[in-house]
Amino acid sequence: MIRKWLRNAAATAMAAFVAAGGVFAGGAGVASAGTLSQHAEWFSGQPVGPVPLQVPAQLAGIKTEYDVIVAGTDPEGIAAALSAARNGLSVLLTDGRGRTTLGGLMTLGWLNTIDLNRYSPDGSILNKGIFSEWYKMVEGDSFDVKTAASAFQRLVDAEPNIDVLMPVRSMEPVVESFGQTKTVVGMELTTKDGTELFVRANAVIDATQDGDVFAAAGVPFTFGREDIGQADARMAVTLVYRLNGVTPAVWSGIRERLRGKKGYGTTTMSAWGYLEFYQYVPSQPQVKMRGLNIGRQNDNTALVNALLLFDVDPLDPASVQAGIEAGKKELPLVVKYMQSRFPELSKLTLGGTAPEPYIRESRHMLGEYRLNIIDLLENKDKWDRIAFGSYPIDLQPTSPSDSGNILFKPIKYAVPFRSIVPQKVDGLLVVGRAASFDTLPHGSARTIPVGMAAGEAAGAAVKVAKERGITFRAMSKDKAAILALQNRLNAQGMDLKPYTLPLQSYEKHRTYSGLKTVLSFGLVSGKYDNDFRLDERANPVEYGLLYAGSRDYFGDKMPTHPSLWYPADQTLEKQLRASPLTLENAALIAATALGIEFQPNGALAALKARGILKDVTISGIKNANALTVGESYMVFRDVATALGFRAAASSVN
Fold first, then answer.
1. Final residue before a domain boundary, out of 499, 530, 546
2. CB count, 10 Å around CB of 252?
């Protein structure tokens, strides 16, 4: 962190520039800088007299203080900056990744297909406001990245209250302590040419994808799947690549191949399918292909989201670069595989890779509220709603042997304001995938439309907090202030009305509490139709996987290695999958996993004697010789509860 004398010197230099008649740069452009005089303490820390100081042209018009600094130029940050500016606040929009183009993941990561949040009954898009404003400026559900970048730039240029500082090499929050309270009061920025400056702000919005600002400010967080016991697991990274030669005739061929196939689909701009790529055998162990998600460009090219990279640490630049190089090495082989198997794609050639990789998961902030998987399962509204989501809980693979999972598809859930308010630190809001979401709901809430809605709310929240003279953490508990925020956002074009949805069939099922427990570990899949198979017959193999999948979470409380209860022989596994799960066998697997000693055929008695398996659970089993899937979940619930686990509760509070 830059020393205090340097912060003061930077502020003095910029103030001198203003006094000398410098012109501020708003959204419309940047003026040239003049020559200033400032003490040599700028260089040495010791006042030794005046020396000439040339303010870099990049800094001309950058003020020493703003109402809000938005750190991060991904779509979420742009929405935050626009919202704040339209509420009359002065805004500095900046980024610490050396970027020169607005749009981040959508423009530099080439992620040109949008995961839309639609309301199931009528198909309407849930995220109104600035997201919808931008969406109308691009081609559709897939878009040309140049169109997207131009749309973002036009929106920002239209706001005179926004100053943009790019490229910036690094940025750090400045945190001051007031008694027991830590507050972010500005940012220390280092430009591309090495110039360092301190910019003060009443508020900072962290819109970095990895939560770089809140982490540096001391806000607590979890990393990857740490919250479910998998500290080293996180979703795969994707390197998006471009295919040349996607003419209208080629696109017609793509649409013809994918027409009418289950799980496949096309529009005029998007295509998804080609699941044959799952059979591709990579040349490197940390690389894997999945089915193709294809988004058209306007120049007879298309961008493909399909190449998965594993063992990439998003916080380690060297690891990220190694992942990129592995992807670049693999892609010529992928294209050759494509050309040899699909006639309509045989003439396409590789046209390069995205400037930035698509990183799905890293830090998850601990905020005043942590969105949990039961919130989504029960389609819960929140009193402090600022955004809505409905995208399926899409858990991409965490390793080459993992196939990923679609947990289920919510109808509609609310993201609360409390989920963008950090614990322990004030003066800061956090939007985007690093906000306060558990790892499982993050599989849905990480989508860009949700993040842009939260960004718009964050920008307006700065105005409400300023008007009321309260901090963000105080605001997160103030229902009158939140109502004022919601009214302001509705006036901006968002739609944040409260709602109530009827209970879903699984919520009324007699084994629902067991489902909630299993789902909390990500160990069940309802797919896109939310069919959890609760009344189907259970088998010993799938039941045993519940213990194997939760063992990392329970640690020493579940000491036995899964090999003692999971069949290693494929023939035996096939036989067991076809066999019913009896109550005694369910107890045997549980007791073995827990390391409990028991007499032959005495596992059930051993669990009952220790108070692990409850009488009410046993009495709810209709046939002890053939448990249903839901009943097996109830047995697992009892075991997990005995080990101290409690499924998250959901409410509007």
1. 499
2. 12
Helix (H) or strand (E) holding 15: helix 4-19
Residue 269 included in any domain: yes
- Residue 217 CA to residue 364 CA, distance in Å, equals 14
- The CATH code of the domain that includes 93 is 3.50.50.60
pLDDT 10s digits, 352-385 = 999 999 999 999 999 999 999 999 999 999 999 9
Please name the helix (run of DSSP H) or strand (run of DSSP E) that holds residue 592, with its range, or none: helix 583-594
- Angle between helix 75-86 and 448-468 (nearest 10): 30
Buried b (16+ CB within 10 A) or exposed e, 140-170: ebbbbbebbbbbbbebbeebebbbbbbbbee
The pTM score is 0.90
Q: Of 60, 81, 110, which residue constitutes the final position of a domain?
A: 60
| Structural domain range at position 142 | 63-226+360-499
Are residues 462 and 527 located together in one domain of the fold? no
What is d(CA 314, CA 291) in angstroms, rounded to the nearest whole number?
24
Q: Is residue 222 part of a domain?
A: yes
Same domain, 217 and 136: yes
Residue whose tokens read 């008694």: 179
Answer yes or no: do 518 and 609 share one domain. yes
For residue 651, tell me if it sits in a domain: no
Confidence label for 122 from pLDDT (cuts 50, 70 and 90): confident
Amino acid at 51: V
Alpha carbons 590 and 516: distance in angstroms, whole number: 18
Q: Is residue 562 predicted with pLDDT exceeding 80?
A: no
- The pLDDT tens digits for 171-230 are 999 999 988 889 999 999 999 889 999 999 999 999 999 999 999 999 999 999 999 999
Residue 139 within any structural domain of the chain: yes
Distances, alpha carbon 521 to alpha carbons 404, 407, 419, 528, 547, in Å: 14, 10, 21, 18, 10
Q: How far apart are CA 81 and CA 78, in angstroms?
A: 5
